[in-house]
């Protein structure tokens, strides 16, 4: 059975939050576990390599810049800040030697 997302919001959620692919024809694509890294449309047969799909697939303009709903703001910190763990981040950057220009 082929599933067609019902709204633009659902398409964004499927791609950004769930890492699924939606074909140009509007159908939810299957992930081909035998081949790996490949999405295949059950409706029209179109295929996409997973990295290519997420880099410039048919809905790239729609999801570009979207942040997953499960996004962890801690992951936005530079590596040194994650290691340091200062609770004053980002205010601590002005006094930190790591950010001394």
Q: How would you portray this structure in words?
A:
This protein has 4 helices and 3 strands, in the order H-E-E-E-H-H-H. With 101 residues, it is α+β, with helices and mostly antiparallel strands. It is elongated and about 55 Å long. A hairpin with a 6-residue loop joins strand 2 and strand 3. The longest helix is centred in the N-terminal third of the chain and has 10 residues, at 8-17. A 3-stranded antiparallel β-sheet has the order 1-2-3. The mean pLDDT is 84. Helices cover 27% and strands 8% of the residues.
Put the structure in a nutshell.
This protein has helices spanning 8-17, 50-56, 60-63, 79-84, and strands at 30-31, 38-40, 47-49.
Blueprint (SSEs and pairs):
Layout: H1 8-17, E1 30-31, E2 38-40, E3 47-49, H2 50-56, H3 60-63, H4 79-84
Antiparallel strand pairs: 1-2, 2-3
Residue runs with pLDDT of under 50 for 5 or more positions: none
Instruction: Measure the end-to-end span.
Output: 58 Å
Q: Widest sheet: strand order?
A: 1-2-3
In round numbers, the mean pLDDT is 84
The level of helicity is 25-40%
The count of strands amounts to 3
Shape: elongated
In DSSP terms, counting alpha (H) and pi (I) runs of 4 or more, how many helices?
4
Outline the biggest β-sheet.
3 strands, antiparallel
Radius of gyration over alpha carbons? 19 Å
Structural class: alpha+beta
Order of helices and strands: HEEEHHH
Strand-residue fraction? 5-15%
């Amino acid at each position: 059975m082929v599933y067609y997302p019902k709204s633009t919001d659902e398409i964004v959620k499927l791609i950004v939050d769930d890492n699924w692919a939606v074909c140009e024809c509007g159908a939810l694509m299957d992930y081909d576990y035998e081949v790996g890294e490949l999405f295949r449309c059950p409706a029209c047969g179109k295929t996409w390599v997973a990295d290519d799909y997420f880099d410039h697939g048919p809905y790239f303009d729609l999801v570009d810049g979207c942040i997953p709903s499960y996004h962890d703001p801690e992951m936005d910190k530079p590596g040194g800040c994650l290691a340091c763990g200062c609770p004053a981040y980002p205010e601590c950057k002005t006094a930190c030697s790591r950010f001394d220009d």
